Amino acid sequence: MSEKCLLDQWRDMAYDRNLPKDQLEKFWGTYFTIEREIYEQLLENPDEEVKGTVKELAEKYGQDVMTMVGFLDGINDSLKTANPIETMEEDTVVSLAFDKELLYKNMIDAKADWLYGLPQWDKIFDAETKKRLYREQKQSGTVRKAKKIGRNDPCPCGSGKKYKFCCGKNA
């Protein structure tokens, strides 16, 4: 049948459990450096839509196609319109038009301080905005439980009865 799609090939390579730990660390260290360099260029002109085939973008950023596929996989959730990464091939046209706030928050969520700490963000957001986005992203992962209603508390339905004699009767 057909060979694996580019994304599956990237994931097989990037998450190969048979590789020794030091080789995986070297692979990811190299990838994160490349990723940082691409983001530095993208953030210089954040409102410019970078568009082209996967192969053209790989050439534009001086990378091989597989590394570009990994980058596209990473940025896809932050794009204004998601790319068809599950089915893309070298000649698939993709866009890197990203939502600035969403990208910043996703970098925080990924704990990628080498990305959300890039100096290019200072030209996009002021310090107060960066703090607000950071706080919003951190709080979005915090689960808050509502205060539990006690048996003898007034019923929240407003009847004036105790919870145990009203809505809590059948609970």
Automatic annotation (TrEMBL):
Could you name the domain of life of the organism this protein comes from?
Bacteria
Q: Which InterPro entries match?
A: SEC_C_motif
| UniProt xrefs under NCBIfam families | PRK05590.1
**What is this protein's name?**
SEC-C domain-containing protein
Q: Which organism is it from?
A: Mediterraneibacter faecis
